## 1
Amino acid sequence: CGRDNSPEVAYCQGCGNPMVSGQVPPPPVYGGYAAPQPGYGPTNYAGIGARFLALLIDGAIIGIPIGIVSFVLSTMMAVRVIHRTSRDTSFNPGMAADTIGTFIAGFGIIMIISALLSWAYFAMMESSGWQGTVGKKIMGIKVTDLYGSRITLGRATIRLVVKSFLSSWLMIGYIMAFFTQRKQSLHDMIAGTLVLSGQPYSPMGYAQPQQYPQQPVYPQQPPAYVPPQQFSTCPYCGGALQPNARFCSNCGHNL
Protein backbone atom coordinates (compact mmCIF):
# COMPACT_ATOMS: atom_id res chain seq x y z
CA CYS A 1 0.00 0.00 0.00
CA GLY A 2 3.02 2.30 0.21
CA ARG A 3 2.80 3.17 3.90
CA ASP A 4 6.07 3.70 5.77
CA ASN A 5 6.64 1.22 8.58
CA SER A 6 9.36 0.77 11.16
CA PRO A 7 11.96 -1.87 10.26
CA GLU A 8 11.04 -4.10 13.18
CA VAL A 9 7.31 -4.45 12.39
CA ALA A 10 6.08 -7.84 11.14
CA TYR A 11 2.86 -6.57 9.50
CA CYS A 12 2.07 -3.38 7.61
CA GLN A 13 0.05 -0.91 9.71
CA GLY A 14 -1.74 0.39 6.64
CA CYS A 15 -2.92 -2.79 4.91
CA GLY A 16 -2.05 -5.65 7.28
CA ASN A 17 0.13 -7.56 4.82
CA PRO A 18 3.28 -9.30 6.10
CA MET A 19 6.44 -7.24 5.74
CA VAL A 20 9.04 -9.00 3.54
CA SER A 21 12.48 -8.02 2.33
CA GLY A 22 12.62 -5.80 -0.73
CA GLN A 23 15.05 -8.15 -2.44
CA VAL A 24 13.83 -10.61 -5.04
CA PRO A 25 13.52 -14.02 -3.37
CA PRO A 26 15.68 -16.77 -4.85
CA PRO A 27 14.03 -19.58 -6.79
CA PRO A 28 13.63 -22.96 -5.08
CA VAL A 29 16.72 -25.17 -5.05
CA TYR A 30 16.55 -28.66 -6.47
CA GLY A 31 19.18 -31.36 -6.15
CA GLY A 32 21.29 -32.69 -8.99
CA TYR A 33 20.32 -31.64 -12.50
CA ALA A 34 16.56 -31.80 -11.96
CA ALA A 35 14.64 -29.08 -13.77
CA PRO A 36 12.98 -26.38 -11.65
CA GLN A 37 9.26 -26.01 -11.43
CA PRO A 38 7.57 -24.49 -14.50
CA GLY A 39 7.72 -20.71 -14.52
CA TYR A 40 11.22 -20.37 -13.05
CA GLY A 41 14.34 -19.39 -14.92
CA PRO A 42 15.21 -17.28 -17.98
CA THR A 43 13.30 -17.32 -21.24
CA ASN A 44 15.71 -15.68 -23.72
CA TYR A 45 16.61 -18.96 -25.39
CA ALA A 46 19.10 -18.78 -28.25
CA GLY A 47 17.78 -19.39 -31.74
CA ILE A 48 18.55 -22.61 -33.58
CA GLY A 49 20.19 -20.69 -36.43
CA ALA A 50 22.60 -18.88 -34.12
CA ARG A 51 23.53 -22.14 -32.41
CA PHE A 52 24.14 -23.85 -35.76
CA LEU A 53 26.43 -21.06 -37.00
CA ALA A 54 28.31 -21.12 -33.68
CA LEU A 55 28.78 -24.88 -34.12
CA LEU A 56 30.24 -24.37 -37.60
CA ILE A 57 32.66 -21.70 -36.34
CA ASP A 58 33.75 -23.90 -33.43
CA GLY A 59 34.18 -26.88 -35.77
CA ALA A 60 36.50 -24.86 -37.98
CA ILE A 61 38.51 -23.54 -35.02
CA ILE A 62 38.98 -26.87 -33.23
CA GLY A 63 39.30 -28.82 -36.48
CA ILE A 64 42.48 -27.00 -37.56
CA PRO A 65 44.75 -28.10 -34.65
CA ILE A 66 43.23 -31.59 -34.59
CA GLY A 67 43.81 -31.90 -38.35
CA ILE A 68 47.42 -30.78 -38.02
CA VAL A 69 48.10 -33.26 -35.21
CA SER A 70 46.40 -36.08 -37.12
CA PHE A 71 48.35 -35.31 -40.29
CA VAL A 72 51.71 -35.22 -38.50
CA LEU A 73 51.13 -38.44 -36.57
CA SER A 74 49.70 -40.25 -39.61
CA THR A 75 52.71 -39.21 -41.69
CA MET A 76 55.09 -40.45 -39.02
CA MET A 77 53.30 -43.81 -38.88
CA ALA A 78 53.34 -44.17 -42.67
CA VAL A 79 57.04 -43.34 -42.88
CA ARG A 80 57.86 -45.87 -40.18
CA VAL A 81 55.83 -48.63 -41.82
CA ILE A 82 57.30 -47.94 -45.27
CA HIS A 83 60.82 -47.88 -43.87
CA ARG A 84 60.42 -51.22 -42.09
CA THR A 85 58.68 -53.01 -44.94
CA SER A 86 61.22 -51.81 -47.49
CA ARG A 87 63.96 -53.76 -45.73
CA ASP A 88 62.15 -57.09 -46.02
CA THR A 89 59.82 -57.69 -48.95
CA SER A 90 58.95 -61.24 -47.89
CA PHE A 91 55.92 -61.89 -45.72
CA ASN A 92 56.77 -61.75 -42.04
CA PRO A 93 53.96 -62.39 -39.52
CA GLY A 94 55.83 -60.62 -36.76
CA MET A 95 56.36 -57.53 -38.90
CA ALA A 96 52.71 -57.55 -39.94
CA ALA A 97 51.59 -57.68 -36.30
CA ASP A 98 54.02 -54.88 -35.45
CA THR A 99 52.64 -52.77 -38.32
CA ILE A 100 49.07 -53.26 -37.11
CA GLY A 101 50.13 -52.37 -33.58
CA THR A 102 51.79 -49.21 -34.84
CA PHE A 103 48.60 -48.09 -36.58
CA ILE A 104 46.45 -48.86 -33.54
CA ALA A 105 48.80 -47.00 -31.20
CA GLY A 106 48.98 -44.05 -33.57
CA PHE A 107 45.23 -43.73 -33.94
CA GLY A 108 44.86 -44.11 -30.17
CA ILE A 109 47.23 -41.20 -29.62
CA ILE A 110 45.31 -39.13 -32.17
CA MET A 111 42.02 -39.87 -30.39
CA ILE A 112 43.46 -38.96 -26.98
CA ILE A 113 44.93 -35.69 -28.22
CA SER A 114 41.70 -34.81 -30.04
CA ALA A 115 39.65 -35.52 -26.90
CA LEU A 116 41.93 -33.36 -24.75
CA LEU A 117 41.83 -30.48 -27.22
CA SER A 118 38.03 -30.70 -27.47
CA TRP A 119 37.68 -30.79 -23.68
CA ALA A 120 39.98 -27.80 -23.26
CA TYR A 121 38.10 -25.84 -25.91
CA PHE A 122 34.47 -26.67 -25.14
CA ALA A 123 34.26 -27.66 -21.47
CA MET A 124 36.78 -25.20 -20.09
CA MET A 125 35.52 -22.24 -22.12
CA GLU A 126 31.83 -22.93 -21.46
CA SER A 127 32.52 -23.07 -17.72
CA SER A 128 34.69 -19.93 -17.81
CA GLY A 129 33.60 -16.33 -17.47
CA TRP A 130 32.86 -16.30 -21.21
CA GLN A 131 30.23 -19.03 -20.69
CA GLY A 132 30.79 -20.17 -24.24
CA THR A 133 33.24 -20.93 -27.00
CA VAL A 134 34.57 -18.49 -29.59
CA GLY A 135 31.74 -19.38 -31.94
CA LYS A 136 29.12 -18.76 -29.27
CA LYS A 137 30.81 -15.49 -28.32
CA ILE A 138 30.70 -14.32 -31.92
CA MET A 139 27.01 -15.23 -32.22
CA GLY A 140 26.16 -13.59 -28.88
CA ILE A 141 24.97 -16.74 -27.09
CA LYS A 142 26.15 -18.51 -23.94
CA VAL A 143 25.72 -21.75 -21.98
CA THR A 144 24.14 -21.47 -18.51
CA ASP A 145 22.42 -23.61 -15.93
CA LEU A 146 18.63 -23.69 -15.62
CA TYR A 147 18.63 -20.35 -13.78
CA GLY A 148 20.91 -18.47 -16.16
CA SER A 149 24.07 -18.79 -14.04
CA ARG A 150 27.55 -19.94 -14.96
CA ILE A 151 28.01 -23.72 -15.06
CA THR A 152 30.75 -25.73 -13.40
CA LEU A 153 33.55 -27.55 -15.20
CA GLY A 154 32.03 -30.89 -14.26
CA ARG A 155 28.68 -30.02 -15.78
CA ALA A 156 30.37 -28.67 -18.91
CA THR A 157 32.32 -31.94 -19.19
CA ILE A 158 29.12 -34.00 -18.93
CA ARG A 159 27.55 -31.80 -21.60
CA LEU A 160 30.53 -32.37 -23.92
CA VAL A 161 30.59 -36.16 -23.39
CA VAL A 162 26.88 -36.54 -24.09
CA LYS A 163 27.15 -34.27 -27.12
CA SER A 164 30.06 -36.26 -28.53
CA PHE A 165 28.68 -39.78 -28.03
CA LEU A 166 24.88 -39.45 -28.00
CA SER A 167 23.70 -36.20 -29.58
CA SER A 168 25.91 -36.62 -32.64
CA TRP A 169 24.42 -40.05 -33.43
CA LEU A 170 22.34 -39.30 -36.54
CA MET A 171 22.06 -35.74 -35.14
CA ILE A 172 19.00 -36.84 -33.15
CA GLY A 173 20.21 -35.09 -30.02
CA TYR A 174 20.53 -31.79 -31.89
CA ILE A 175 17.15 -32.16 -33.61
CA MET A 176 15.48 -32.39 -30.19
CA ALA A 177 16.11 -28.64 -29.74
CA PHE A 178 13.40 -27.95 -32.33
CA PHE A 179 10.74 -29.68 -30.23
CA THR A 180 11.63 -29.02 -26.58
CA GLN A 181 10.08 -26.14 -24.69
CA ARG A 182 13.41 -24.53 -23.78
CA LYS A 183 15.15 -25.39 -27.07
CA GLN A 184 17.31 -27.92 -25.26
CA SER A 185 19.29 -30.52 -27.12
CA LEU A 186 19.81 -33.96 -25.63
CA HIS A 187 23.10 -32.93 -24.01
CA ASP A 188 21.43 -29.84 -22.52
CA MET A 189 18.65 -31.90 -20.99
CA ILE A 190 21.02 -34.45 -19.45
CA ALA A 191 23.53 -31.88 -18.18
CA GLY A 192 20.84 -29.44 -16.99
CA THR A 193 21.94 -26.52 -19.14
CA LEU A 194 20.42 -23.87 -21.37
CA VAL A 195 21.76 -21.94 -24.35
CA LEU A 196 20.69 -18.31 -24.02
CA SER A 197 21.03 -15.21 -26.14
CA GLY A 198 22.76 -12.11 -24.85
CA GLN A 199 19.52 -10.18 -24.56
CA PRO A 200 18.54 -9.08 -21.06
CA TYR A 201 15.73 -10.99 -19.41
CA SER A 202 13.60 -10.95 -16.28
CA PRO A 203 13.52 -14.24 -14.36
CA MET A 204 10.06 -15.78 -14.24
CA GLY A 205 8.28 -17.09 -11.22
CA TYR A 206 9.42 -14.50 -8.70
CA ALA A 207 6.82 -12.90 -6.52
CA GLN A 208 5.63 -9.60 -7.91
CA PRO A 209 4.36 -6.85 -5.64
CA GLN A 210 0.63 -6.98 -5.38
CA GLN A 211 -1.21 -3.98 -6.69
CA TYR A 212 -4.02 -2.68 -4.56
CA PRO A 213 -6.74 -0.40 -5.94
CA GLN A 214 -6.74 3.12 -4.61
CA GLN A 215 -9.36 3.88 -2.03
CA PRO A 216 -12.14 6.12 -3.34
CA VAL A 217 -11.97 9.70 -2.19
CA TYR A 218 -15.30 10.98 -0.84
CA PRO A 219 -16.04 14.70 -0.93
CA GLN A 220 -17.43 14.29 2.55
CA GLN A 221 -17.85 11.52 5.05
CA PRO A 222 -20.78 9.20 4.20
CA PRO A 223 -23.88 9.51 6.36
CA ALA A 224 -23.82 7.66 9.65
CA TYR A 225 -20.06 7.43 9.49
CA VAL A 226 -18.60 6.40 12.81
CA PRO A 227 -14.89 7.15 13.25
CA PRO A 228 -12.93 4.01 14.19
CA GLN A 229 -11.88 3.65 17.77
CA GLN A 230 -8.26 4.55 18.35
CA PHE A 231 -6.04 2.31 20.50
CA SER A 232 -2.63 3.03 21.97
CA THR A 233 -2.02 -0.69 22.49
CA CYS A 234 -3.30 -3.70 20.57
CA PRO A 235 -6.41 -5.18 22.26
CA TYR A 236 -5.34 -8.65 21.03
CA CYS A 237 -1.66 -8.89 21.93
CA GLY A 238 -0.98 -5.70 23.92
CA GLY A 239 1.71 -4.42 21.58
CA ALA A 240 2.35 -0.68 21.20
CA LEU A 241 0.69 0.99 18.20
CA GLN A 242 1.67 3.95 16.09
CA PRO A 243 -0.86 6.78 15.65
CA ASN A 244 -3.65 6.00 13.14
CA ALA A 245 -2.53 2.40 12.75
CA ARG A 246 -5.18 0.19 11.15
CA PHE A 247 -3.39 -3.10 11.79
CA CYS A 248 -1.21 -4.26 14.64
CA SER A 249 2.47 -4.41 13.68
CA ASN A 250 3.03 -7.33 16.06
CA CYS A 251 0.15 -9.75 15.40
CA GLY A 252 -1.42 -8.29 12.25
CA HIS A 253 -4.99 -8.07 13.61
CA ASN A 254 -7.38 -5.56 12.09
CA LEU A 255 -7.94 -2.74 14.57
## 2
Amino acid sequence: MAELTIPAAVEAAAKRFGSRLAIVDGEVRLSFAELAEAGLRAARAFCALGVEPGDRVAIWAPNIHEWVIGAIGLQAAGAVLVPLNTRFKGAEAGYVLAKSGARVLLAIEEFLGFRYVDMLRRACGGFGSRCPVAELPELERIVFLRSEGAVPRGCLAWEEFLALAAQVPERAARARADAVSPECLSDILFTSGTTGQSKGVMTAHGQNVRAFEAWCDIVGLREGDRYL
Protein backbone atom coordinates (compact mmCIF):
# COMPACT_ATOMS: atom_id res chain seq x y z
CA MET A 1 0.00 0.00 0.00
CA ALA A 2 1.41 3.39 -1.02
CA GLU A 3 -0.61 5.30 1.61
CA LEU A 4 1.44 4.53 4.71
CA THR A 5 -0.26 7.00 7.03
CA ILE A 6 -3.80 6.85 8.34
CA PRO A 7 -4.75 10.32 6.96
CA ALA A 8 -3.44 9.31 3.52
CA ALA A 9 -5.30 5.98 3.68
CA VAL A 10 -8.56 7.74 4.57
CA GLU A 11 -8.14 10.18 1.68
CA ALA A 12 -7.28 7.38 -0.75
CA ALA A 13 -10.34 5.39 0.33
CA ALA A 14 -12.55 8.45 -0.22
CA LYS A 15 -11.25 8.81 -3.77
CA ARG A 16 -11.47 5.10 -4.54
CA PHE A 17 -14.83 4.23 -2.96
CA GLY A 18 -16.58 7.64 -2.86
CA SER A 19 -20.27 7.07 -2.17
CA ARG A 20 -19.83 3.45 -1.03
CA LEU A 21 -20.92 2.84 2.55
CA ALA A 22 -18.12 3.19 5.12
CA ILE A 23 -19.88 3.26 8.51
CA VAL A 24 -23.27 2.14 9.82
CA ASP A 25 -24.11 3.32 13.34
CA GLY A 26 -27.80 3.01 14.12
CA GLU A 27 -29.56 5.43 11.80
CA VAL A 28 -26.28 7.11 10.80
CA ARG A 29 -24.86 6.13 7.41
CA LEU A 30 -21.56 7.61 6.23
CA SER A 31 -19.94 7.03 2.86
CA PHE A 32 -16.18 6.94 2.48
CA ALA A 33 -16.27 10.47 1.04
CA GLU A 34 -18.44 11.71 3.91
CA LEU A 35 -16.20 10.06 6.47
CA ALA A 36 -13.11 11.74 5.04
CA GLU A 37 -14.90 15.09 5.01
CA ALA A 38 -16.06 14.66 8.61
CA GLY A 39 -12.55 13.67 9.67
CA LEU A 40 -11.06 16.77 8.05
CA ARG A 41 -13.61 18.95 9.82
CA ALA A 42 -12.61 17.37 13.12
CA ALA A 43 -8.95 17.97 12.27
CA ARG A 44 -9.70 21.67 11.75
CA ALA A 45 -11.46 21.74 15.12
CA PHE A 46 -8.48 20.13 16.83
CA CYS A 47 -6.20 22.71 15.24
CA ALA A 48 -8.51 25.45 16.54
CA LEU A 49 -8.20 23.97 20.05
CA GLY A 50 -4.44 24.37 19.78
CA VAL A 51 -3.59 20.69 19.34
CA GLU A 52 -0.11 20.39 17.83
CA PRO A 53 1.65 17.50 16.06
CA GLY A 54 2.74 14.93 18.63
CA ASP A 55 0.18 15.97 21.25
CA ARG A 56 -1.78 13.16 22.87
CA VAL A 57 -5.57 13.02 22.52
CA ALA A 58 -7.52 10.33 24.40
CA ILE A 59 -10.86 8.75 23.49
CA TRP A 60 -13.04 7.11 26.16
CA ALA A 61 -16.19 5.79 24.49
CA PRO A 62 -17.75 2.64 22.99
CA ASN A 63 -17.89 1.94 19.24
CA ILE A 64 -19.79 4.92 17.80
CA HIS A 65 -19.26 6.90 14.61
CA GLU A 66 -18.03 9.95 16.55
CA TRP A 67 -15.17 7.78 17.89
CA VAL A 68 -14.03 7.06 14.34
CA ILE A 69 -14.38 10.68 13.20
CA GLY A 70 -12.50 11.92 16.25
CA ALA A 71 -9.68 9.44 15.71
CA ILE A 72 -9.33 10.34 12.03
CA GLY A 73 -9.42 14.04 12.88
CA LEU A 74 -6.83 13.99 15.62
CA GLN A 75 -4.43 11.86 13.59
CA ALA A 76 -4.88 14.13 10.56
CA ALA A 77 -3.94 17.04 12.85
CA GLY A 78 -0.73 15.15 13.68
CA ALA A 79 -1.80 14.16 17.18
CA VAL A 80 -1.45 10.74 18.80
CA LEU A 81 -4.47 8.61 19.69
CA VAL A 82 -4.71 7.24 23.24
CA PRO A 83 -7.75 4.91 23.51
CA LEU A 84 -9.20 4.24 26.96
CA ASN A 85 -10.90 0.95 27.81
CA THR A 86 -14.68 1.33 28.18
CA ARG A 87 -14.52 -0.75 31.40
CA PHE A 88 -12.05 1.60 33.08
CA LYS A 89 -12.99 3.25 36.36
CA GLY A 90 -11.92 6.78 37.19
CA ALA A 91 -8.52 5.97 38.70
CA GLU A 92 -7.56 3.71 35.79
CA ALA A 93 -8.50 6.35 33.24
CA GLY A 94 -6.71 9.00 35.27
CA TYR A 95 -3.52 6.92 35.29
CA VAL A 96 -3.51 6.57 31.49
CA LEU A 97 -4.33 10.25 30.95
CA ALA A 98 -1.54 11.31 33.30
CA LYS A 99 1.01 8.84 31.96
CA SER A 100 0.32 9.78 28.32
CA GLY A 101 0.12 13.51 29.03
CA ALA A 102 -3.14 13.79 27.07
CA ARG A 103 -4.17 17.39 26.36
CA VAL A 104 -7.70 16.58 25.16
CA LEU A 105 -10.16 13.84 26.12
CA LEU A 106 -13.09 12.83 23.93
CA ALA A 107 -15.63 10.99 26.08
CA ILE A 108 -19.19 9.77 26.10
CA GLU A 109 -21.26 11.01 29.03
CA GLU A 110 -22.54 7.61 30.19
CA PHE A 111 -22.02 3.97 29.19
CA LEU A 112 -23.36 0.83 30.90
CA GLY A 113 -24.52 2.94 33.84
CA PHE A 114 -21.15 4.61 34.39
CA ARG A 115 -20.70 8.37 33.99
CA TYR A 116 -17.13 8.62 32.80
CA VAL A 117 -16.19 12.22 33.55
CA ASP A 118 -17.88 12.10 36.96
CA MET A 119 -15.83 8.98 37.82
CA LEU A 120 -12.67 10.67 36.58
CA ARG A 121 -13.24 13.79 38.65
CA ARG A 122 -14.05 11.80 41.80
CA ALA A 123 -10.81 9.86 41.41
CA CYS A 124 -8.65 12.82 40.41
CA GLY A 125 -9.54 15.71 42.67
CA GLY A 126 -12.75 17.10 41.16
CA PHE A 127 -12.81 20.29 39.11
CA GLY A 128 -9.55 22.12 38.48
CA SER A 129 -9.25 25.89 38.50
CA ARG A 130 -7.31 25.96 35.22
CA CYS A 131 -8.08 22.51 33.78
CA PRO A 132 -11.12 20.22 33.62
CA VAL A 133 -9.76 17.81 36.26
CA ALA A 134 -7.77 19.01 39.29
CA GLU A 135 -5.01 16.37 39.35
CA LEU A 136 -4.55 16.26 35.55
CA PRO A 137 -2.96 19.65 34.78
CA GLU A 138 -1.99 18.67 31.24
CA LEU A 139 -5.61 17.84 30.35
CA GLU A 140 -6.87 21.11 28.91
CA ARG A 141 -10.23 20.16 27.44
CA ILE A 142 -12.91 17.46 27.60
CA VAL A 143 -15.23 17.02 24.61
CA PHE A 144 -18.46 15.04 25.07
CA LEU A 145 -19.07 12.89 22.00
CA ARG A 146 -22.66 12.33 23.15
CA SER A 147 -24.46 13.83 26.14
CA GLU A 148 -27.94 14.44 27.49
CA GLY A 149 -28.53 18.14 28.13
CA ALA A 150 -25.85 20.67 29.04
CA VAL A 151 -22.27 19.47 29.41
CA PRO A 152 -20.37 20.13 32.66
CA ARG A 153 -18.31 23.24 33.25
CA GLY A 154 -15.00 23.21 31.39
CA CYS A 155 -16.27 20.80 28.73
CA LEU A 156 -17.53 21.08 25.14
CA ALA A 157 -20.37 19.29 23.42
CA TRP A 158 -19.45 17.50 20.17
CA GLU A 159 -21.24 20.02 17.97
CA GLU A 160 -19.63 22.92 19.84
CA PHE A 161 -16.26 21.32 19.23
CA LEU A 162 -16.94 20.78 15.51
CA ALA A 163 -18.10 24.40 15.15
CA LEU A 164 -14.52 25.46 15.99
CA ALA A 165 -13.51 24.16 12.55
CA ALA A 166 -14.73 27.45 11.07
CA GLN A 167 -11.68 29.12 12.64
CA VAL A 168 -9.19 27.06 10.60
CA PRO A 169 -9.03 26.99 6.77
CA GLU A 170 -9.38 23.60 5.11
CA ARG A 171 -6.02 24.04 3.39
CA ALA A 172 -4.30 24.41 6.76
CA ALA A 173 -5.75 21.11 7.98
CA ARG A 174 -4.81 19.37 4.74
CA ALA A 175 -1.27 20.67 5.07
CA ARG A 176 -1.14 19.30 8.62
CA ALA A 177 -2.37 15.88 7.39
CA ASP A 178 0.12 15.87 4.50
CA ALA A 179 2.94 16.52 6.97
CA VAL A 180 2.25 13.25 8.82
CA SER A 181 4.87 10.66 7.84
CA PRO A 182 4.92 6.86 8.19
CA GLU A 183 7.44 7.27 11.02
CA CYS A 184 5.19 9.62 13.03
CA LEU A 185 3.67 8.26 16.21
CA SER A 186 0.09 7.15 15.58
CA ASP A 187 -1.19 5.54 18.78
CA ILE A 188 -0.28 4.80 22.38
CA LEU A 189 -2.07 1.60 23.39
CA PHE A 190 -1.90 0.81 27.10
CA THR A 191 -1.45 -2.79 28.22
CA SER A 192 -3.90 -4.52 30.56
CA GLY A 193 -1.67 -4.08 33.60
CA THR A 194 -2.43 -7.59 34.88
CA THR A 195 0.98 -8.13 36.52
CA GLY A 196 1.99 -4.53 37.11
CA GLN A 197 1.33 -0.95 36.10
CA SER A 198 -0.15 -0.58 32.61
CA LYS A 199 2.44 0.50 30.03
CA GLY A 200 1.93 2.57 26.92
CA VAL A 201 2.94 0.79 23.70
CA MET A 202 3.82 3.28 20.98
CA THR A 203 3.07 2.51 17.33
CA ALA A 204 3.73 4.52 14.17
CA HIS A 205 1.47 5.20 11.18
CA GLY A 206 3.49 3.08 8.75
CA GLN A 207 3.59 -0.04 10.89
CA ASN A 208 -0.14 0.24 11.66
CA VAL A 209 -1.17 0.56 8.01
CA ARG A 210 1.04 -2.36 7.05
CA ALA A 211 -0.45 -4.43 9.89
CA PHE A 212 -3.99 -3.61 8.76
CA GLU A 213 -3.13 -4.57 5.19
CA ALA A 214 -1.61 -7.90 6.24
CA TRP A 215 -4.52 -8.66 8.59
CA CYS A 216 -7.08 -8.04 5.83
CA ASP A 217 -5.24 -10.45 3.55
CA ILE A 218 -5.00 -13.14 6.24
CA VAL A 219 -8.69 -13.07 7.22
CA GLY A 220 -9.88 -12.56 3.66
CA LEU A 221 -11.64 -9.23 4.18
CA ARG A 222 -12.78 -7.87 0.82
CA GLU A 223 -14.47 -4.81 -0.64
CA GLY A 224 -18.15 -4.72 0.34
CA ASP A 225 -17.73 -6.97 3.41
CA ARG A 226 -19.15 -5.74 6.71
CA TYR A 227 -17.08 -5.88 9.87
CA LEU A 228 -18.47 -5.46 13.40
